[in-house]
Amino acid sequence: RFCLPLVLASFPTMATGEEIPPALQDSWGDFWLFRFFVNAAGYASIVVPGYLLIQYFKRRNYLETGRGICFPVIKSCVFGSEVKSVHQEDGSLPPRAEPTESSTARQVFKLLFCAAGLQVSYLTWGVLQERVMTRTYGATETDPGEKFKDSQFLVFMNRILAFTVAGLYCALTKQPRHGAPMYKYSFASLSNILSSWCQYEALKYISFPTQVLAKASKVIPVMMMGKLVSRKSYEYWEYLTAALISVGVSMFLLSSAPNRHVSTVTTFSGVVLLAGYIIFDSFTSNWQDALFTYKMSPVQMMFGVNVFSCLFTVGSLLEQGALLESLRFMARHSEFTAHAVLLSVCSACGQLFIFYTINQFGAAVFTIIMTLRQAFAILLSCLIYGHTVTVVGGLGVAVVFMALFLRVYARSRMKKRSKKLPPGETPVQKV
Question: What's a Gene Ontology MF term here (predicted)?
């Protein structure tokens, strides 16, 4: 039992002469690697019994022999009710409805509404995320205050509100008949909550601008995961822009500011957590892409994934006794309560704006809006929290966003070209 602290203590930092802030070393139970394994054990206590039940029902051929009051529930969770449908062109979203008789002014208003909604939702979400994870609450002249340390509780807060919003939306609007086995959502849910946990936890070790650029570079692992999971192939320009993104991110990460604050030092732990976020998030998007071969709407996908996310996170929090501790923290600090609730509202509203924007204007316009949002997020974080960016780092940021816009332009050209292909030919799939 004395080996774990020694192993964790040996983790080096990337910045010479710097150490992890003392606040992060209060107890080994708060260290990210220990928390990761504890959380994973909590998820396993739900996943393993669920897996055994699914295998039991399949071996018994329950779909043919089962009956009784539980039959519809078990059938929906384990077997589903429909066969797969033909995969749609985008793979992740139904084709957007083209406006037939809509004035230019109305389309401009819709575009401005979508852009404003996405920018406000995710810029506010980013600022609050950094505030919650890097600053203290209840600080006075005599008391330094305390930090909120349980990233999993924030993931739970986000997912419970997203689950509620998606459920109400599905109940109030007409949706396609659902046919996917419910248990298949659990794979995307598990990787989604792990990626979100890594994202929150990484802010204890790296600056927010570094995290934003790391998100931009997830194009590379998404392509790799696409080859492994979906057997996709890619064009030369996709590899070129991925290489440019890698160069830009490397320039930013390797640049150094002489007066950099300890809290913005990019440590080895932060890099590992970012890598975890990118890997888990890449798996999530590719698994969801595969799930869309069933007839479902994006909001149904949002609902299904968040059902399991709530189940996993609340189960793990209860097993650890962390749920009550987090609620007591909320009771002690009303400011944190407001931040956590607003964080969840922004996350849920942002997801709805994503679906609406892609449905109305397509993926290319959405990508441009979100790319601009990333640039604004870096600028806003530097202004509010005082992060410094060197000239080399600024050039790296410019290279990254130039590559992202190049991807949008090349993809739109390829989509126009694919419409002119003969009926028997299909274009190369994209990320």
Answer: 3'-phosphoadenosine 5'-phosphosulfate transmembrane transporter activity
Cα 368 from Cα 229, distance rounded (Å): 27
Q: Which of 295, 139, 267 is nearest to 203 (CA)?
A: 267
Q: How far apart, in whole angstroms, are the C-alpha atoms of residue 135 and residue 386?
A: 13
Distance between CA atoms of residues 51 and 178, nearest Å? 22
230-257 pLDDT tens trace: 677 777 778 888 888 878 877 876 665 4
Q: Is 49 exposed, middle or buried (0-12, 13-18, 19+ CB in 10 A)?
A: exposed
Residues 85, 91, 93: CA angle, nearest 5 degrees? 95
Least confident of 126-135, 149-158, 386-395: 386-395
Give residue 82's pLDDT band: very low, low, confident or very high (50, 70, 90): low
d(CA 232, CA 372): 28
Which residues face 137 on adjacent strands? 146
Nearest Cα neighbor of 92 from 302, 245, 275 is 302
- Amino acid of residue 210: T
CA–CA separation, 181 and 386 (whole Å) = 48
Percent of the chain as helix, strand, coil, to the nearest 5 = 70, 0, 25
- DSSP structure string for 103-144: -HHHHHHHHHHHHHHHHHHHHHHHHHHHHHHHS-BS--SS--
CA dihedral 218, 221, 226, 227 (to 10 degrees): 150
For residues 223 and 179, give the distance between their C-alpha atoms in angstroms, rounded to a whole number: 28
CA distances 330 to 135, 335, 340, 376, Å, are 15, 8, 9, 30
Cβ atoms 215, 393 nearer than 8 A: no
C-alpha distances (whole Å) from 2 to each of 30, 44, 154, 275 are 16, 25, 30, 28
User: What region does 68 belong to: left with phi over 0, alpha with psi -120 to 50, or beta?
Assistant: left
